[in-house]
Every structure is written in C-alpha cells, then in structure tokens.
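Extended Data, panel c. Modelled sequence:
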Amino acid sequence: MTAVLPVTLLPIGVRGMKVLNRQKFLRKVVVPILKVCDEKVSEVTPICKNYFLKLENFKPIQPLKQDSENSYKIIHLNPERISHWTDIDNSDREVLQKCGITEKDLDSKEIEIMYENFKYDSIFKAVLPENEETVSGFSQIGHIIHLNLREHLLDYKKLIGEVLIDKIKTCSTVVNKNNIIDNTYRNFSMEIIAGEENYIVTVKENNCNFRFDFSKVYWNPRLCKEHERILEYLKPGDILFDVFCGVGPFSIPAAKRKCKVFANDLNPDSFTWLNFNAKQNKVNMKNFKSYNLDGKDFICTIFKDFLVNLCKGTEEIQNESKIHITMNLPAMAVEFLKHFNGLLEDKVFMEKFNYEIIVYVYCFVIGDDPYKDAEKLVKESIECDINILNTFNVRNVSPKKEMMRVTFKLTKNIIFGLKHESECEPPPKKICVEKEIKE
C-alpha cells in the first residue's frame, strides 16, 4: 500500500461563510481501508473500532464490490490516525495477523465527504472565525434550541441556526437571547434565527410533564438535577412553600409526592401554565394551592396566615412533618429574606411555635470564595443571626460567577424577630456538604 498522507477530516474552504451553502462542503478524501473476508469481520471489528472512520451518515464497514467467488468487506479507517500499517498498535496488529489480516490487506480508497457527513461542531470549527470563542454550548427545551451568542458570532447566526436544525433531529426552532433575564418575570426577549415560530414546548422532568410558552416564562434545563436534589428532601406529609415557582418544577413533583404545596409566581403566564401543568399531571388539587403574587405579599400573607393558623390550631400538620421554603430567584431572592424577620408579632404564639422550617434560597455570587460570599449575602439580607445548614454550588454561570444555594433553619427567633439566635435554641448540626455532588 502507498502511504496515505495524513489529512484533516474538517471541511475546507468554508471559513467565513455566512449564508449556508451545503454544496461547498463536498470534498474528496483518500482514506486507508482494510480488506477483510466476510467470515472474519466479526472477529476483526472489535480490534478496528478505535481506528474507524467515524462520520455522520457513513458506515465504516461496507461491502467490497468485485467479481469473485469470495465475499469481502472493507473497513474504512481514520486517515488522521492511520497512514501506515505500523500506525496500528502492535498488540492489535498481532491479533489481526492471527485472523489472517496482514499489511497487504491495507489499502487506500478515495471517498466523497458531504455536508451530511459532518457534525455541527465540525462545521462551526471550519466556518466560524479562528482563534475566537465558537458556539460553546446551548440549551434544548423541547423542540427549541436556545443560544446566547457572543457579539462576534451575530453575523453568523442564521447559518448557526440552520446547521443546528439540520443536525439535531429533535430541533425545529432555534432562538438567540437578546438581553439579560428580566428580574420581574424571569424571562427574556429572544429572536428566532432558524425554523418555525413555535414557542410552546413540552418537557419531561422528575416524572412530570411540563408544557409552557418558552418566550414568556423561565425554564432552565440545567437545573433538573437541582430540582431532583430538593425533592429528595421532601417526604409525604411535608409542606412546601414555593415562593418563585415558575411553571412548577419544584411544586408539581412535590404535590405528586403527597406534600401539601403552596405555589406562587408573579408572572401571570407562569401562573397560567403552573395550573395547567398541575391538572395535566393529575395533582390532587386539595393539597395544591397556587397564587399570582409578589414574593413579599406571598410571604407576608399566605405564609404568615399559615403559621398563625398552625399556632391557633385551625391548620394541621402531621407529626414530624417539615415545612420547606424554596426561593429560586437567584438574581434577587435574598432581598425577600428580610420579610421573615419578625413576621409574627404576637408573642402569645411563641410557646405553641415548635415547627421545623427549612429555607432553600438561591443567589448569584462573583468572587474567589463563592461559599463564603453566598453565606455573607444571606446573613446580611435577613438582618439577624442564622445558623446555616448547608451551602452548595449549584452550577457555574460564567467565569467566576456561581449559582449558589444556601440552606438554613427558619427558627422561632427569626419568625418573632428576636435579635440573637442563642436566646432560644442551640445551633443545629451542619449537614455534610461533601455528600452532595455538583452536576
């Protein structure tokens, strides 16, 4: 065999393309092939897998067309790895030789590679500006792919969108975020850069189906594991107050787990889809109440009334059941913590107040020590002494910006506005942080 010159399998001659021209990706490449008789293919294939020519819509093992009584297959090998027989590992060559495959069975062949054979990342690497950040990642929500393109990629957005629709079969719409998240409703403006204008999506998470208009509500698929973590803390009979519930990724699975749920969101579209999803997932509506309130009003009326009724005995809670409060609005959730401080003014209720209330509050922090910064932010925001149970890094948002979750007990001291935590009860034991794994 004449040595196959090392070649790149990336598309060539397409750098700077802004209008997708699929024909431009057509090229001819000489690749090494291994000729193997049919009865030996099953033995040889496991040895050759590491050397396969791997392209989209391309079978590395194909019949050899020839006029002969014997039937053969040819195995296409990766020219970026193999140009000589000795490029195959010595141990693999020994196994091949035991199967009757020697250097004389190694040959070369010219093949055509087309647009259909390239993955989207190979196309982006060949087309987009060199030495610049490329399309580093994206989220997929149902049939929608959501991008956050850097400025230097905006001229290529139409091409990027078309390529993603071509290459990701479950995608029919590609959108690009236009600005930062609106802190009021947690949604953002976006533009469709490819595909159909259809924002209604359905996603499945934690054994529940969620349907919503992605252009009007907040949903982040990267939080699926975090939703699951919190749900693991909830037991049947527990109470959940979900202050910024969105379309219900905490609330609806919690209700399905036989928790009593009070779900709230200020966004009227989130509120509409929350109730739709509760019904679609056959939630027991006796244990599910929804509200379209500001977070402060929800805490100072719905949550407060619940506590008052507990103390009065008109609201019941099962023995050993806990009350959980989720506050997943990381851009500003800590600003609402102060409303828990001194929430109940009537000290008559203090003797009857013996409930375990756990708060899970989320925040963004920027700095070298996100754990310390997150705890400091929470302590300063609630304006009283607290004992933190757990601080957890949920995900990296951008360089040095982390989404953190701080978990603490909402004690009698805080609820009744006492100045020092030590006045009423000893500090709780810390939950072992090391057991939680960042996803």
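The chain has ten helices and 17 strands. This feature is highlighted in the accompanying rendering.
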